[in-house]
Design brief:
The complex is a heterodimer of chains A (49) and B (280). Chain A has 49 residues and is mainly alpha-helical. Chain A has two helices and one strand, in the order ααβ. The longest helix of chain A has 21 residues. By secondary structure, chain B is of the alpha+beta class. Chain B is 43% helix and 16% strand. Chain B contains 13 helices and ten strands. In chain B, the strands form three sheets. Chain B has a five-stranded mixed beta sheet, sandwiched between helices. Chain B is globular and about 50 Å long. The two termini of chain B are 26 Å apart. Classes of the chains: A mainly alpha (49), B alpha+beta (280). At the A-B interface, β1 of A face α1, β1 and α8 of B.
């Protein structure tokens, strides 16, 4: 039982870590937390001239 | 990066994005509807074309009668250029053809599949159809519209009011990039390098496609002059009114703020060559 719980816990930690690394844009999150006057401007574009 | 102009409009209005490149008529329509944004600079000039099937029956503009033509938005210069070209050939785009709105990345596939007869779109989609062998440029925008404008830089009014220095830095950077891309004898080398890094790191497109769009020929897309000029925008507003997407003409000053373009007037091209660690 103890081994099963450890395995599930390790799996959850691994998947959660991978999600934070691969899917979360930390630069955007940190930029949004800065005071308004210090934030980088977000500029939208589409891949066309 | 977005895939269509309507999503950009929503992101700008909700302040998720503070600035955006969008087709000029959409920016004008937003302003006419009271959305607090202003055009501060252009993204480029030219770079749009009407493309037909290479093995199809359309060989001249008058052959477009009764055909289906895709445009990126009813609020786009690519729609207006179709009206202009049809009028120059004695036809009325409203009555003589059917226009459908389509996200830019979808048009080349739709043409190849025969779902549409033609599309009017900015690069690199005309190039994509040419390289694929299934599309042929019927005409480039320049043939019917000297100094044609497509995408413009739009900034939220609250950002213009509170952070004019940041807006000026953005406009200066675009001005310097444009001068770098159009820098006389170095233009081709710079454009080939830009196609490589923009394709790989920004557009996620095959650099070969952007190399074609930026160099075949070298003035297929131009990056100067990028200052917003009154006469260019009055032409767009008048065409929007004539074609029924704007109720009434609005003054240039209501939707354009020229101070940042004036501030960027003395800018010089970036000093940057492939292999340099940074641009100066």
């Amino acid at each position: 039982m103890r081994k099963l719980v450890l395995a599930i816990g390790a799996w959850i930690i691994a998947i959660t870590s991978a999600h934070f690394v691969l899917n979360v844009n930390w630069q955007v999150l940190m930029n949004d937390r800065l005071p308004e006057g210090q934030r980088k401007l977000n500029v939208a574009y589409i891949p066309v001239t | 990066m977005f895939q269509g102009f309507p999503e950009i409009k929503e992101a700008l209005m909700s302040n998720k994005m503070q600035a955006a490149f969008m087709v000029a008529p959409m920016a004008i329509a937003l302003r006419a509807q009271g959305v607090p944004v202003k055009i501060v600079y252009l993204g480029h000039r030219y770079g749009s074309a009407v493309v037909v099937r290479s093995d199809g029956p359309v060989h001249r503009v008058s052959d477009l009668r009764g055909r289906i033509v895709a445009v990126p938005s009813r609020f786009s210069d690519e729609r207006l250029i179709v009206f202009r070209a049809m009028a120059a050939n004695g036809l009325d785009a409203k009555k003589d053809l059917r226009m459908v709105e389509m996200a830019p990345p979808d048009v080349a596939g739709a043409l190849a599949a025969g779902a549409i007869d033609a599309f009017s779109m900015g690069e690199p989609y005309p190039s994509q159809a040419e390289i694929g062998g299934f599309g042929r440029v019927l005409f480039h925008a320049r043939e019917y519209w000297p100094d044609f404008i497509s995408c413009v830089l739009v900034v939220r009014q609250d950002v213009i009011d509170k952070r004019p220095d940041a807006v000026q830095v953005l406009v200066d950077g675009i001005a310097r990039s444009g001068l770098w891309l159009d820098e006389k004898e170095r233009a081709k080398r710079h454009r080939l390098h830009a196609a490589d890094f923009v394709g790989r790191f920004y557009y996620h497109q095959d650099p070969k496609l952007l190399r074609w769009a930026l160099t075949n020929p070298i003035d297929r897309v131009k990056y100067e002059p990028l200052s917003p000029r009154r006469a260019d925008f009055e032409t767009i507003v008048n065409l929007m009114v004539q074609t029924g997407v704007l109720d009434h003409a609005i003054p240039f000053e209501d939707f354009v703020d020229t101070r940042f373009a004036e501030g960027a007037h003395a800018m010089t091209a970036w000093k940057y060559e492939a292999g340099d660690d940074r641009a100066r």
